[in-house]
Amino acid sequence: MAKHSAEVLVEGLKKILISVKEGLDEKVQGKVEKLIAELQGTVPPSLEPFDPDAQKLELGFDFFKNNIFDKNREYFRELAEAQHPKFLVFACSDSRVSPSIVLNFKLGEAFIGRNIANMVPQFDQWRHTEIGSVIEYAVKELGVENILVMGHSHCGGIARLMELPDHSCSHDFIDEWVKIGLPAKQKVKEEANHLPEEEQLRLLEKESVENSMANLLTYPFVRNAVENGSITLRGGYYNFDNGTFQQWKKM
After folding, report:
1. pTM of the entire structure?
2. What is d(CA 21, CA 32) in angstroms, rounded to the nearest whole number?
C-alpha cells in the first residue's frame, strides 16, 4: 500500500511540474526537466550530500538575477558594450567593508582593487605589478576621474603592521606586503607614541591611507593626471563601530 501511495504521489508531482514548466525562464525549466527525469527514474538522484555553501551561492545569484539584472535589462545591455566608471577604489579585502555596499556603488560605477589593508605601493615595474596594472588600466584605458583609498576600523593588516617585527607570529606574504605602510607607522610612533595602543591603531589606519595616496603620485601617469586636474585623489575612512565615513582630498 505504501509503495502504491508513493507511486501515486510521484505521478502527481510529475503532472504538476509539467504543467508549470511553460512560462519559466530557461534555467528554471532546466531544473524542472531534471527533476521530472529523476522522478521518472531516467536520471539517478544525486548522491552528493547537501552543500549549504553551494546553495548560498545559487540563492545569492538568483536574488541578483530576479531583483537586479532582470529589472534593469537596458542598463546591463549598456554595460555589456563598455564600462565607464568614475572611480578607482582601493579597499581592504576585509569581508566587513565591501565598498560597493558601504558606498552604494552600482555595477559599472567603480573599478575596484582590494588587498590586505587597502595599500598602494610605490611605482615599481618589477614588484607589485598586479596593483600597477589596476592603476594603469583604470587611468589610461577607463579614464577614471577619482582615485579613492578607503581605510577602515579594526583592520587586521594595520594591526600586523603595528606589531612588526614580531617574528613569533610571522607570515610568509602578509608581513612583506604591509611593510608598504612602514612610513605611516614611523610617523604615528613619532607623533603619538604616548597614546593608548588602540588610539595609535586608529591613527595608523588613517595615516596608512595618506601613505598610499602619496605613493599613487609616484606613478607618472597618475601624477600627470592629478596635475592637469583630470583626476582627484581622495582618502576615505569607514568606521564600522559607529557607522561613519570620512573623506578628504589630496591637495
Report:
1. 0.80
2. 7
